[in-house]
Amino acid sequence: MFGTALAVRLLHVWQMTATPFATVLLGDARGYDVWARRLAGGDWIGTDVFYQAPLYPYFLGGIYALLGADPVTARVVQAVVGAASAVMLATAAAWFFSPRAGLVAGLLLALYAPAIFLDGLLQKSVLDVAFVSAMVLALAAVHAGGAHQRRWWLVLGLAAGALALTRENALVLIVVLAAWVGVAAPAVVVGRGRALAAFAAGVALLLAPVAARNYAVSGEIYLTTSQFGPNFYIGNHAGADGSYQSLRFGRGSPEFERVDATELAERASGRTLTPAEVSSYWSGRAWTFIRTEPGAWLRLMARKAALLVNAREAIDTESQESYAEWSWPLRLLGAITHLGVLGPLAILGLWAAGADRRRLAIVGALAAAFAASTVAFYVFARYRYPLVPLLVLMAAPGLLALPRLMREWRSPAALATVAGAVTLAAVAQLPLLPAARSRAITETNLGTALYEAQRYDDAIGRFRRALDIQADYVPAFNNLGVTLRAAGRTDDAIRVYRDGLALRDDYPDLHYNLANALLAINHADEAAAHLRRAADAGGESAGVHNNLGTALADQGNFREAAEAFRRALVLEPASSRAHRNLGKVLAELGRRDEAFTHLSRAATLAPEDAEAHYDLGVFLLSQDRNAEAAAALAAAIGVRPGYAEAHNNLGIALGSQGDLDRAIAQFEEAMRLQPGFADAARNLETARRARGVK
User: What is the domain class of 620-694 according to CATH?
Assistant: First the structure.
């Protein structure tokens, strides 16, 4: 069993080494890789409350520390873990039912295409299923009884605690298991009290160190992470569709999640919030939606339930269909091993279990609890994946009982079973997740990663391939335009943006990026119109209003520009860019005191921004506040020593104070940095004449 599972996984890993996915990490995988490298470098404690479940990054960090920071090596280790999961599940099914059922269960997991796919990603899914398989094995062992039963209660607790550190909603399974151990478990050897104590000890051994670490860095107690509220809101609000949506449009990368959740909550609350308060803010908004729009929420829950049992895997970053283009195991097994087959087989298994059905009650309860906890948030392939070992355990006797079902199909129990299985199979085939869209998303995500690595030609190829797969996938138009512009092909980018808007005029990023491209070629009027459209289409952000203000200022419309910059500051009060731009247009409007306040604030907020110091210095110079201007311009030069314009204006400020020698030196430096700098040349000549130097 181990060899079979390992062989197909290693074949998959080997075939994927020839693809872009081998070296380009996407989404959470990239975040885990960065985190693991930091851990392997010695930063094992960190400074913030865990926002993402921590156990997988520590697992990956351990691999990097021991075997080197190579994702391919990590995938090989994960293949071993996946194979071990198949062995644990096979053993559990043999103990629950029979050796034949064990063989079937092990092979089902060993050859299950989504398992092969997910075990090969740098994602925590591989540990999720390992821990669930260990839980199932422990349950089978305690049912079997024997002298070592107490040891298996401890294993059950350890597995449940570990699962909670990879999948936060698995905390609900600890509650279910604790209730079962205390009330219904077959604690025939050690007694219920001791069994519960052993189980609790196993859970505590895993969760207590994490809770202590979180308390040490924050002063607050978090058993695992602090992201309950944002995740609950993502799955339960008026615009939710059952899958992941970033809190800010277009910012779905892991590095933005904590920042966006905190900034938006603090802006709405008007004060600094603790991680617990941020979580409470978002969960409160979700509960408000549920309470005020119960009909919409129930329809949303029905969609999430349908996504949970769908035959296709709902992706967030990478699709199984895309990987199947290179992977023989995925291509050969994907059509016959999926949840649309496994779910109906599990229903048959419950019928086939007969007298053993009572022993499966806890397995069914765990499956129901985890399914409910997943639907309560949102559904992804890897979020529902921990259900697979539980369903496989129930499916194994169902597969073996197919001949018996054909003989007894007329009995009421068999007819009810067939009806349930057929109904679930039909629901699983609902076209909620088109394969073409999943592949287009994957190609677009890959292109985005290549763009961020400045591999623009490769990225352009991926975006164009995404559009070949799905011609109306608008995010690919947007990202293709961004990449073309980064490659210096602004005219091509503008054409692509316009093509995307012809398909979907309410896509804010297309309007925003088209406006930026138009500003670059001095089409301020049209740019302003697109920036307004971006805000109206739901893409309102500080960046949109900043750029709108810039476009209006380029047209000489300083009053409306000031309004746009003020709106940017409402959305992002600490934006030094908005403060700087507002200060400049206020100066144009003659509102000098306000201009000084905002320009000073910009320099304070961004001490490493040479432009902020420069703009403050130029304003002070225009007000004959020469000593203050000189200090601000010197600060700009301190940040950027090669800033020719700052040297020139510093020379003016010094010369205006009578310090001609230093002024001459600044003008000369400006000329050295920028030969042919006419203004500096005139100023240098004037200063030399005043100094009596030819």
Answer: mainly alpha
